[in-house]
Amino acid sequence: MSPASRPPRPSEIAPERVWRERRRLVAALGLLAAGGTPAPAVRAAVPFHAPASPEPLTAWEHVTRHNNYYEFSPAKDAVWKLAEEFNPRPWTLTVEGEVGRPRTWGLDELLARFAQEDRVERLRCVEGWSIVVPWRGFALASLLAEAQPRSTAKYVEFISVHRPSEMIGQRRPVLPWPYREGLRIDEAMHPLALVATGLYGQPLPAQNGAPLRLVLPWKYGFKSAKAVTHIRLVERPPATSWMSVAPSEYGFFGNVNPEVAHPRWSQRRENRLGELGKRATLPFNGYAEQVASLYAGMDLSRHF
Ligand SMILES: Nc1nc2c(c(=O)[nH]1)N[C@H]1C(S)=C(S)[C@@H](COP(=O)(O)O)O[C@H]1N2
Ligand SMILES: [Mo]
Predict the structure, then answer these.
(1) Is the CB of residue 58 below 6 angstroms from any atom belonging to ligand 1?
(2) CA distance linking residue 43 with residue 12, whole number of Å
């Protein structure tokens, strides 16, 4: 069936809630007569202008309907529906450990303290699919600087929310809960490391990690922990969830590297959601110029 004639896949249909929100926004802009149905062109005109991007953005429908989020389900197309049970508010984020000023932030305090910017970045999953997303958020470095890291802070641990009452996948030991990830402190301080609070100009959808998640665009997606509640500065490399279940498949760095195959598949190519066929995967997901110096001296033919 040609792409033009096939029926829309479930992944191409916006959830009703989102559609209603778009309608509300469009109506608020005066673009929609009361009770009318917006034409597709008008519906796309949400009051958001993505920053210029050399690559086409991945459609909202793909970004929000194809998700890895094991707290809900290992089935990518099941996550968005299960995530409707999740309440991202109220929320607190604690920054602690080897810091001079540990602090617990409320979500609104964070949004007020750190100016939100829109940034288009690629995200490449270790499984071989990728997306281009207009994220909204602020630099992780500015949050860490506020905590005044001590010289003993060599690594940063990220801990996701543990809420089995709202996250059905957490009722089974698929991964050790809560989800944990980690970075070296210099990686965490890199300006590309983002705390994302939204996408497409909207608050982060639950399935994408509401109310806040990491976006580390030069690393495989599993490093970009969703729904983070604790950031701990530590002396030693933290244990991560994926390393504890499959140490041979998931290294600590997780940098996108087409030269190093996953034990079960090549990493040379990827499917950009919404595109037919595959495109080449780039070293550091195309961010080598910005981040390669972090890994000077590391043998990149062996590590990912
Ligand atoms: N807490 C948590 N964070 C997570 C995951 C997860 O299962 N739990 N999956 C990771 C993986 S493997 C990927 S590819 C990305 C996917 O992000 P997306 O669904 O917003 O595209 O989230 C990452 N962050
Ligand atoms: Mo992933």
Answers:
(1) no
(2) 15
